[in-house]
Amino acid sequence: MTEAVIEQVGTNETGVTGADGATAGTAAAEPAITDVTVIGGGPVGMFAAFYSAMRNLDVTLVDSLPELGGQVAALYPEKPIHDIAGFVSGTGAELVANLKAQLDTFPERITVHVNEEVRGLEQLADGTFTLTTSAREIRTRSVIVAIGSGAFTPRPLAIDYDRERLDGHKVFYFVKRLADFAGKTVAVAGGGDAAIDWALELERIAGKVVLIHRRDNFRALESSVARLKESTVAILTPYKFTSVTGVPDGDGLHIELAKIKSDETLALDVDALLVNYGFTSDNHLLKEWGLPVKRGDLEVNEYLETEVPRIYGVGDAVTYPGKVKLISAGFGEVPRAVNHLAEQLYPDRKQPLHE
To answer: Where FAD is bound, by residue (predicted)?
Structure first.
């Protein structure tokens, strides 16, 4: 069967193969058995597919979402990415577009299936694997798991409010388009990197930005906290939310706050509230596949290999001593995993000494 390789950069129409088998764009024939299958189409999974192709490995990349990019593309397309070397003030969407362009350089080696959930992973007697998706079976000599934190759900405000009426209209948990907040008064809840990054980005376009956090200290990069304190963003700490309601006969949002360890209260009227309390995640599939899991993460060794030979993990899905959950750290893990994998599959090939 002829499969399309990757969606066209800069358009909304995918050129990858979906669950319905439709194809478009550059095509490549998927081999009867592929050298490596990458599970997960986020930034780290995309780079794993690209680097595997650089080592002359045939690669199949599978993702459950309708398009590549993972959580970055789905939730943070306009959020700046700061922790990747040489990628200056770029957005999530720009990062994903660059990674897609990399994949396009190896159309003869990389096959991509999107909108397909991986439902089974079985090791055969000859040491190869059968990977079953919602649309097909894939025979593969090795597997790289790059599913990030798995299924993710935003942590909600810890109060009752009219979610059905307000979520997605006045209360938001991620930003698809900054332009939607132009000229508005926006409250941002949270004290981590995401909350501060969004507050600083919104400062450029919103009429007024207020950051609300339940502690005086922030859990964010020191440089970002310094920029925040020098900005025009109003900082309210330490406050907790007690009430969030729609403004009667109006188009805004009424917020009531209580100061921690105090009787002091505060009321705000804003146009929108952006909540950044992080996400809960679920990697239950790892256990279902019989892989070693520690506190929800895949356990790997110094080569990013699990206790099951030729099954590797990279990115936020894995754990090992000193693990840092950043996109840049995941990118650094990919060459270690792929170079070791390539030597296992083809012992006569030497690991590259330099780029």
So the answer is: 63, 71, 76, 118, 152, 316
Alpha carbons 214 and 216: distance in angstroms, whole number: 7
Nearby residues of 322 by Cβ (< 8 Å), 6 or more positions away = none
Shared domain check, 115 and 17:
yes
We report the CATH number of the domain holding residue 328 as 3.50.50.60
271: tokens are 């146009």
Per the annotation, binding residues for FAD are: 63, 71, 76, 118, 152, 316
Instruction: Give residue 25's pLDDT band: very low, low, confident or very high (50, 70, 90).
Output: very low
pLDDT tens track for 65-93: 888 998 888 777 888 888 899 887 788 99
**37/77 same-domain check:** yes
CA distance 299 to 313: 8
104 and 24 within one domain: yes
CA distances from 229 to 75, 121, 186, 218, 232 (A): 26, 50, 17, 11, 8
Tens digits of residue pLDDT in 300-349:
999 999 999 999 999 999 999 999 999 999 999 999 999 999 999 999 87
pTM: 0.72
Instruction: Identify whether 324 is part of a domain.
Output: yes
Alpha helices in the chain (DSSP H): 43-54, 70-75, 92-103, 163-166, 193-203, 222-230, 284-288, 327-345
Residues 339, 304: Cα–Cα separation, whole Å:
11
Domain span holding position 46: 2-152+279-345
99 and 30 both lie in a single domain = yes
Residues 4, 101: Cα–Cα separation, whole Å: 14
Q: What's the pLDDT tens digit per position in 117-152?
A: 898 999 999 999 999 999 999 999 999 999 987 666
- Indicate if the alpha-carbon torsion angle 329, 334, 339, 340 is positive or negative: positive
User: Quick one: 65 and 146 in the same domain?
Assistant: yes
